[in-house]
Write a sequence for this structure.
């Protein structure tokens, strides 16, 4: 399996390197769909220039990266292209390894369940065979590396690629069961952009499951493990923030990075839901609606964790998707990361997937067209662009709920049998309500 | 959500869509065409109205008195033009200076990629002369433009005369709040392109021009005047600009309002409006007017000197004087008063024209159809593509009769699919690239080996590449996989149909007319093509409905609509010149129609051609 992966990596790197050399790179790095004020490379360069002049990079209103990123690029600025390609490669390899590991666990669980005769007889075709599963890790890696969205955001040198790499490493270390590394990478991801905070619950659930500690609020071992994980997570977060303070010598970065993410002052159009609302809103409602919008990202953690507490890995991917939809400055790079799902939704309703992918395809083509009509030709206006943004987000939400539905259905079939009978003996179907 | 996730209802919907797919498609097509034809019916259209407050309620008086003197200046200009054998730069500079303007000149030169036989030019050198009337009452941050082309021969002398007359008259008024720039441009659009690029410090087409020495504020609106006779019977308003862009409808409203006020006959597309909309001839008149607008817009070329302004966010239109055999004539003084009134109102603008519509079609000058009304016509056609795609998807997703290992079988069938879809895609796009690049690159070789001129060489090479594309190897998948699978062509058709839908959708948003005309011919092709239909007949139909033939029919239809029918031979010559003009428009002004057709539409059509010959 190593040979196809190497080949894939080579192809991916070649495509990126070729695009870096072409004239498209400049064009791509200006697109609002690809870079946000948080992740734009132009702003990193500006921050570096300020740093070299001995001015705090946060003194203007341009730079919103974390201090570690700017010190990283302080050394690597000449090798920026290689860094971004490397980040993508790391993400892909980490995903590849974690999916492989997860597959092994699924098999083990399935074997025990089969031996214990826990599955109904008629759902054998839902059970995964090794042959079927063999290519899934490679497919996942391919899906990430050759995804046009990922390629675009890598070519635009959007630092979103680095965040994705950190999150992928977090997933890998969690699935491998390494508590300390998991906590460290999660705190790094949180430090980069606050939202991965919500992954905490999923990671905790997974690690608990792996160590055979039941989720029971009255058990001491449960609380002890939670406290351990929280200590490691908060400790490393504290160390990282402290390190940033000592590097920079001031707390400027806190309002400039996290305040910027949470209070959304930059209303440049992007593919998210925030900009249009906040541009139209009366100023005195701003705080209220900020809370309403931001709470979306965090709120779904609770019901999802309760519903999916047996399946924390699926929960991680649901959470990633929710973050990419509701965060304040989304880019296509985030969405690429959220598409990664390795639960082969065996009973996914094919019609919905088709409709959703058609909509996503059409939206991706319409973004630049409507942007052109609005900004250059001056004949359309922001409503046209926002309409497409809305459609794009609706498609994403449909996609996520579709996966969720398919997953739930599969679990239901596994416990109740594939061919359901009503009480009167006629064939029944499952309905999501 | 309920409909999508409830399996019972979804199954019912799917079975309905697959069972009735063909009839629904036919109904959609008819409905789309009927909707489009209905747009010209007056009760379905809206009356134009002035949306911009700054231009609506303010009254202005037009007092321009000096029409005769302006015509005299025009005659003087014509004499100097003859003497200089082109633009009489010195005389113009002197005349404008004596009228109290700040005068500047701009030189430009441009070598065309191949000789333009219509306008007989290849190496173009020229000079633009413009004078700025500085606004006495405002900080000079905004400007208006009035331009007149200096055309070869005896054309447009009166336009320059009226322009100079207005300059002199405007100079004595105190109420101007915007700079007014009087521009006389040489070599029509090439000069205009040079001037606009110089004014905005951009260079998109690689033209040589000297930088402008003086400029006014940001330009808010522009009018271009074309006048070739001392008296006119009517004034024609030309709106279509580069890539089918249109100015804000308020500019048309302004023109119409002043024509009504002063009592000048006004037309659009050269057609007077009629009041008998309920009669058949009245309706067909409106359809003709609208179809002319659609054809002109679809061509993507600027139909007057104003066409290039639109690219810079400047609302602009061309006003053309037409002298026919009617009794009632309008003299130069009246035209001057009309322009004065329009500029007075434009002068009152507080912000850019943005209140009214930018996407519209006009069945007459007093009625319009906005985007919300005409888009459904296109939407109905695009729906056919989506329905076909859905049908194909369901066919592909439902497994073939279940065998013991049905699932594994299906996967084996779909895996070579990727390669057999990718190859035709790559081949047809390479043909498209050849169609885009070869004609201009190979003109010298063609001229050496064949007895043709450069222009003919370019056009004939384009046609040759286009035809050669039809003969390309269509069964590459057989070399790769041994035999074409049943699923192979379905996958390819699914890809091609979705590709066409996205392509046409984007085109229709930028240039509705082009998108609609392409959809009219390409959608039936996309809907009916399968490898199972009778080959010879279908191939014939497909060629008839291919983009090149669409263009040929459009040329004839356009001539027919203009009431200047041509014989087949003349039509063919016209067709060749239209192709060369399309390529030139792309090279000179950056019109997008030629690359769109060559790089995207033609390859997409080739995919369907490929499916027809799938074995």
């Amino acid at each position: 399996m190593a040979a196809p992966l190497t080949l894939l990596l080579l192809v991916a790197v070649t495509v990126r390197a070729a695009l870096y050399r072409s004239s498209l790179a400049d064009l791509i790095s200006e697109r609002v769909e690809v870079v946000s004020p948080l992740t734009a490379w132009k702003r990193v360069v500006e921050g570096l220039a300020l740093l070299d002049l001995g001015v705090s990079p946060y003194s203007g209103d341009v730079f919103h990266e974390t201090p570690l990123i700017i010190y990283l690029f302080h050394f690597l600025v000449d090798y920026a292209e290689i860094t971004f390609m490397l980040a993508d490669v790391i993400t892909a390899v980490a995903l590849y390894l974690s999916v492989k590991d997860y597959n092994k666990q699924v098999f083990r669980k399935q074997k025990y369940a089969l031996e214990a005769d826990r599955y109904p007889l008629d759902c054998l075709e839902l059970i995964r065979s090794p042959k079927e599963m063999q290519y899934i890790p490679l497919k996942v890696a391919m899906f990430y590396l050759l995804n046009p969205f990922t390629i675009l955001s890598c070519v635009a040198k959007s630092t979103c690629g680095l965040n994705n790499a950190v999150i992928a490493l977090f997933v890998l270390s969690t699935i491998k069961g390494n508590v300390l590394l998991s906590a460290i990478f999660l705190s790094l991801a949180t430090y980069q952009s606050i939202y991965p905070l919500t992954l905490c619950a999923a990671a905790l659930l997974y690690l608990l499951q792996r160590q055979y500690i039941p989720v029971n609020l009255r058990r001491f071992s449960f609380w002890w493990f939670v406290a351990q994980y929280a200590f490691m997570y908060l400790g490393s977060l504290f160390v990282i923030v402290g390190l940033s303070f000592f590097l920079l010598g001031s707390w400027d970065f806190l309002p400039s990075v996290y305040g910027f993410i949470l209070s959304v002052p930059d209303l440049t159009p992007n593919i998210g839901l925030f900009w249009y609302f906040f541009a139209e809103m009366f100023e005195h409602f701003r705080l209220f609606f900020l809370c309403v919008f931001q709470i979306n990202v965090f709120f779904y953690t609770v019901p999802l964790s309760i519903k999916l507490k047996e399946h924390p890995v699926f929960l991680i991917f649901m959470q990633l998707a929710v973050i990419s939809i509701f965060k304040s400055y989304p880019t296509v790079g985030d969405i690429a990361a959220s598409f990664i799902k390795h639960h082969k939704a065996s009973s996914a309703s094919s019609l919905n997937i088709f409709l959703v992918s058609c909509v996503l395809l059409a939206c991706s083509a319409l973004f630049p067209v409507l942007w052109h009509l609005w900004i250059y030709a001056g004949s359309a206006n922001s409503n046209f662009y926002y309409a497409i943004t809305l459609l794009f987000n609706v498609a994403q939400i449909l996609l996520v709920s579709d996966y969720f539905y398919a997953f739930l259905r599969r679990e239901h079939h596994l416990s109740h049998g594939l061919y359901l009978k009503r009480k009167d003996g006629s064939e029944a179907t499952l309905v999501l309500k | 959500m309920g409909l999508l996730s409830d399996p019972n209802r979804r199954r019912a919907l799917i079975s309905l869509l697959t069972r009735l797919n063909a009839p629904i498609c036919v109904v959609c097509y008819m409905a789309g065409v009927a909707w489009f034809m209905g747009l010209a019916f007056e009760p379905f259209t809206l009356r134009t109205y002035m949306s911009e407050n700054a231009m609506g309620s303010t009254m202005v008086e037009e007092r321009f008195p000096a029409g005769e003197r302006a015509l005299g200046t025009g005659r003087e200009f014509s004499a100097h033009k003859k003497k200089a054998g082109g633009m009489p730069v010195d005389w113009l500079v002197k005349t404008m200076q004596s009228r109290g303007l700040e005068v500047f000149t701009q030189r430009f030169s441009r070598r065309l990629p191949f000789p333009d036989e219509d306008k007989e030019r290849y190496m173009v050198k020229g000079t633009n002369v413009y004078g700025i009337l500085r606004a006495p009452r405002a900080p000079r941050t905004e400007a208006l433009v009035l331009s007149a082309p200096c055309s070869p021969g005896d054309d447009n002398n009166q336009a320059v005369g009226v322009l100079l007359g207005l300059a002199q008259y405007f100079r004595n008024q105190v109420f101007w709040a915007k700079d007014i720039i009087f521009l006389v441009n040489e070599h029509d659009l090439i000069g205009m392109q040079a001037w606009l690029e110089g004014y905005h410090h951009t260079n998109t087409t690689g033209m040589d021009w000297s930088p402008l020495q003086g400029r006014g504020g940001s330009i808010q609106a522009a009018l271009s005047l074309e006048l070739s006779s001392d008296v006119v019977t009517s004034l024609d308003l030309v709106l279509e600009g580069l890539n089918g862009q249109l100015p804000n409808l308020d500019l048309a409203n302004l023109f119409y309002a002043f024509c009504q006020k002063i009592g000048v006959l006004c037309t659009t597309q050269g057609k007077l409006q009629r009041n008998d909309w309920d009669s058949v001839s009245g309706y067909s008149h409106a359809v003709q007017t609208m179809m002319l607008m659609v054809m002109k817009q679809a061509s993507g070329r600027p139909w007057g000197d104003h066409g290039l302004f639109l690219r810079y966010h400047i609302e602009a239109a061309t006003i053309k004087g037409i002298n026919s055999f009617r009794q009632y004539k309008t003299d130069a003084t009246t035209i001057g008063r009309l322009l004065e009134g329009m500029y007075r109102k434009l002068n009152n603008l507080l912000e850019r024209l943005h209140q009214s519509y930018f996407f519209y079609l006009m069945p007459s000058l007093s009625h319009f159809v906005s985007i919300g009304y005409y888009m459904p016509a296109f939407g109905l056609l695009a729906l056919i593509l989506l329905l076909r795609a859905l049908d194909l998807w369901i066919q592909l997703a439902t497994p073939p009769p279940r065998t013991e290992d049905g699932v594994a079988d299906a996967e084996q069938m779909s895996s070579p699919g990727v390669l057999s879809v990718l190859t035709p895609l790559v081949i047809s796009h390479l043909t498209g690239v050849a169609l885009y690049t070869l004609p201009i690159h190979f003109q010298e070789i063609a001229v050496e080996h064949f007895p043709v001129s450069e222009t003919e060489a370019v056009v004939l090479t384009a046609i040759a590449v286009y035809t050669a594309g039809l003969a390309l190897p269509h069964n590459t998948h057989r070399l790769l996989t041994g035999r074409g699978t049943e699923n192979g062509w379905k996958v390819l058709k699914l890809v091609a149909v979705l590709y066409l839908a996205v392509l046409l959708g984007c085109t229709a948003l930028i240039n509705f007319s082009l998108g609609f005309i392409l959809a009219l011919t390409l959608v039936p092709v996309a809907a009916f093509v399968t490898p199972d239909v009778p080959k010879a007949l279908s191939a014939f139909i497909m060629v008839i409905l291919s983009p090149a033939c669409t263009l040929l029919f459009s040329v004839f239809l356009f001539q027919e609509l203009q009431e200047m029918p041509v014989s087949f031979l003349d039509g063919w010559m016209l067709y060749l010149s239209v192709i060369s003009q399309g390529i030139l428009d792309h090279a000179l002004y950056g019109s997008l129609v030629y690359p769109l057709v060559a790089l995207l539409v033609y390859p997409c059509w080739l995919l369907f051609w490929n499916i027809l010959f799938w074995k």
